[in-house]
UniProtKB/TrEMBL annotation:
It comes from Nocardioides marinquilinus. This is DUF559 domain-containing protein. It comes from the Bacteria. The lineage of its organism: Bacteria, Bacillati, Actinomycetota, Actinomycetes, Propionibacteriales.
């Protein structure tokens, strides 16, 4: 137990591990990744406590959840994208890949395959709300994001893949499209 706002609550580590025993794989990876991202637990804490719960009912998938969860995932959409790639046996990308221009950070990409010159952005509704600055319209955010994409393309020469929730609802088709892009870049190299 830990104290939060004057209340005793279950620790992030215990919450993460218990979720893995009662929820399916995808929600478990989403929750564990979110708790890691927020700093409510760490990989070391999870592994230390997991060793003591190996015999818990329902803990059979906990090991897989802990291997797939990642503190770098910023959203449910990113986590679900990663899981789609995993299920499709696509080479796993690097999450939150940083792009610099003369030493200045200009972009953090949701996912990248730097060796192939490809990056992937998950465009959820919340992403554009988070980017909205005071007094700014949604269309201004979209234009700014387009300029960011153009800058990354100019600096790297990489190809961008953009996904939405609709793409995740068709995982086989979406994974095949991603694999074609990666294979095309691999063949061109």
């Amino acid at each position: 137990m830990v104290e939060r706002n004057g209340l005793l609550v279950m620790s992030g580590t215990r919450t993460a591990l218990e979720v893995t025993t009662v929820a399916p794989l995808d929600p478990s990876v989403v929750v564990v990744s979110h708790l890691l991202n927020l700093g409510h637990t760490t990989e070391d804490q999870l592994l230390a406590h997991y060793g003591r719960m190996a015999e818990w009912p329902g803990s059979g998938k906990t090991d897989l959840v802990l291997r797939l969860a990642d503190a770098r995932f910023d959203s449910i959409g990113e986590t679900r994208t990663y899981l789609m790639l995993f299920r499709a046996h696509i080479d796993m990308p690097e999450p939150q890949y940083k792009i610099h221009d003369d030493g200045v950070l200009v972009a953090e990409l949701d996912f990248a395959w730097p060796d192939l010159g490809v990056w992937l952005e998950f465009d959820g509704f919340v992403k554009y709300q988070k980017l909205l600055e005071e007094g700014e319209s949604a269309s201004e955010v979209v234009v700014r994001e387009k300029r960011r994409e153009d800058l990354v393309r100019r600096l790297t020469g990489w190809e961008c893949i953009r996904l939405t929730w609709a793409d995740l609802s068709r995982p086989e088709r979406t994974a095949a499209m991603i694999q074609r892009v990666l294979d095309g870049r691999r063949a061109a190299a």
